[in-house]
Design a protein that fits this description.
Elements (H helix, E strand, L loop, with lengths): L11 H10 L1 H11 L4 H15 L5 H4 L1 H5 L6 H11 L3 H8 E3 L6 E3 L7 E2 L2 E2 L7 H5 L12 H7 L4 H13 L9
Pfam family, one: CxxCxxCC
InterPro entries: Puta_zinc/iron-chelating_dom
Length: 177
């Protein structure tokens, strides 16, 4: 395990600016990762996730709650309705937008209705996509690079994991491709 002290960035404004400045570099890094074995990348990502995530207080950030579109399932609506002591129809009417074919349901506002004073008011009953974000613990990281790079400038964990990956893998910038 890599035990060197990591320089963790915890300011959203810093990573937002870096995301804009490093767009070409990150596209080159995406191409660079294609030359690495997927399982090895997963192992590195999960190691870094386990090291970096505890150093970032997601509950004091809440940026994902202010910027992500969240898909919702019928069972999550049922659970939320029970928790809020309301009908499923009320929950759907107030908080959910349904696709034209009724095949997808999403929260109908960004930021999330349930973000109160930078905290999730339904934290113990939050949706699966909220629980799983940023998903660095899941396998096949390289197949999700588009989403990871999309969230690079808004999620402190993703930003720090990707930046540390660049160091650990010897990525030298755009000249690496």
């Amino acid at each position: 395990m890599y035990l060197a002290c990591l320089n963790i960035i915890t300011q959203l404004d810093v990573i937002a600016l870096a995301a804009a400045e490093k767009e070409a570099e990150n596209q080159a890094f995406k191409a660079f990762l294609r030359s690495h074995e997927s399982a090895a990348i997963d192992e590195l990502v999960q190691e870094l996730d386990a090291t970096i995530t505890p150093q970032i207080d997601c509950t004091s950030c809440g940026n994902c709650c202010r910027s992500l579109m969240i898909n919702v399932t019928d069972s999550e609506i049922t659970s939320l309705a029970a928790h809020l002591n309301r009908s499923e129809a009320d929950i759907k009417e107030q908080y959910i937008e349904t696709g034209s074919n009724n095949d997808i349901m999403v929260m109908n506002t960004i930021p999330c209705h349930f973000l109160t004073a930078n905290c999730c008011s339904i934290y113990e009953h939050r949706f699966a996509e909220c629980r799983e974000f940023p998903g660095l613990h899941q396998p096949e990281f390289t197949s999700r690079l588009f989403a990871m790079l999309m969230h690079y400038g808004r999620c402190l964990i993703i930003y720090n994991v990707l930046e540390e990956m660049k160091k650990r893998l010897g990525f030298k910038g755009e000249s690496n491709t």
